User: Which sequence fits this backbone?
């Protein structure tokens, strides 16, 4: 039986570490890094265009994964400042490579609960069911009343949807909220 040469061993070890990091982060967050399809990204863009963002708006993508949605947002809103936050190292670095050359994109590695989002003029997310209640509570703390929030596929429960777009299939729905979007909210 033959052993692996050092280069093959190093490559295998790197793949195992990077793949393991994705699994660890998924276990911690309950959300795997996901990539938005072109149709899903188009729906998020369309909903944000309905929201009539101000010139130079700061738009956060929480859990920016592989960068597909952040890149689509940067291209659709070239005057906006797109800020993606991703916890998982491999998707973060892939998104950094993919977004190079887009001057209006800044990507950060880390937990978006630890980032200051108080300057957000819009927020997008493509997460799973598990983090949505905690995220809603966090957004309640930091967003100005009326801030547009677009969630792809997994919606905020007990919040009023301002607009939505539905593509075919289970995971193709996008919803626009005017935060805090609670039925009992009367304004700021």
Assistant:
């Amino acid at each position: 039986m033959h052993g692996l040469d050092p280069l093959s061993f190093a490559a295998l070890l790197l793949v195992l570490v990077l793949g393991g990091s994705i699994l660890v982060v998924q276990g911690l967050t309950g959300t795997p890094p996901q990539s938005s399809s072109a149709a899903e990204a188009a729906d998020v863009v369309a909903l944000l265009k309905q929201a009539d963002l101000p010139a130079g708006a700061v738009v956060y993508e929480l859990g920016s994964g592989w960068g597909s949605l952040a890149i689509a947002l940067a291209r659709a809103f070239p005057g906006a400042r797109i800020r993606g936050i991703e916890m998982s190292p491999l998707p973060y670095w892939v998104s950094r490579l993919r977004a190079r050359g887009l001057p209006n994109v800044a990507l950060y590695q880390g937990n978006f609960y630890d980032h200051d989002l108080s300057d957000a003029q819009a927020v997008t997310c493509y997460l799973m069911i598990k983090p949505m209640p905690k995220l809603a509570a966090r957004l309640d703390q930091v967003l100005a009343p009326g801030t547009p929030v677009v969630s792809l596929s997994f919606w905020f429960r007990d919040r009023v949807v301002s607009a939505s777009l539905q593509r075919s299939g289970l995971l193709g729905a996008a919803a626009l909220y005017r935060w805090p979007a609670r039925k009992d909210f009367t304004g700021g």
